[in-house]
Amino acid sequence: MENPAFRRATPILLSRDLDKTIQFYDKLDFRQVARYDDYLILRRDDVDLHFTRWPDLDPKRNSCACYLYVEGIDALYEAWLHVGAVHPNGKIGDTAYGMREFAAIDEDLNLLRVGERT
Length: 118
Hints:
single chain; alpha/beta; 2,3-Dihydroxybiphenyl 1,2-Dioxygenase, domain 1; globular
């Protein structure tokens, strides 16, 4: 029997209001691919972010996160910093495990860890 192979993973993040999620991620250059009553798909380049509507979400209790591998992290950091998406404790820096990283956070407190191999 042949071993199955994983090809891709897509995070499903939470959103209290899909319209506000679209507005926020539009500032980060993600574009809407599909929209349903309680579900949203956004894309930038080859990265999809999926959101499910969770109107009773308490953002302080949200533990959703994803890691985005990018190229050109310094320019991306400056762009996202300019629109207020960078987490106050998520400043850009190099890690011991060979990544240059920063953290961004959306209005529902979904954490986006962003990194590029050094």
